[in-house]
Amino acid sequence: MIKKILSVVLAFSMLNLNLLAAAPLDRGTMFIVRLLSTVKSNSKETISTIVDNDVKGKNGEILIKRGTPVQTSIKREKAKGCGRAGFVELKCISTTSVDGQTILLEGSSSATGKDNKGLAIGLGVGLGVTFLPVIGFAFLAIKGESATIEAGTIFNVFVMNDYNIEN
Q1: Scanning 40, 68, 134, 157, which has the fewest C-beta atoms within 10 Å of its C-beta?
Q2: Is the pTM higher than 0.90?
Q3: What angle do CA 70, 72, 78 make, to 5 degrees?
Q4: Whole-number mean pLDDT of the chain?
């Protein structure tokens, strides 16, 4: 009986030591992500993003190392006729902590190209109705500019959940 009690006490004391060894990464913790390659609305190139600074716990221990890759998703809309501009949005999904846990993230960056609606519609309708119907309406095919997020762009992301990181 005493052996069982001692083994239970020993097990609980080891459990408590493990909890003390874990450093919390709290929900809402903010850090910076850097885009390493340019993202354009009119291309399908793969991109890479990294954690730009060490993410540290309350006691100064590193929880996410600088340079850790960040998984992202990209939403792209190409520039279209009638002067509609391109659009690109980069969303951060997750990264990895020093102990290998997947850390869910919230944060994004987006860009919209310059639209040419006024030019396309003005020339298309203006010339199409008045002078040159066939050629005038062809101006409606004028596209807006594509959107670009340049390499080196940094943006803030936030941790979505609470985590305990083992050091």
Answers
A1: 134
A2: no
A3: 145
A4: 78
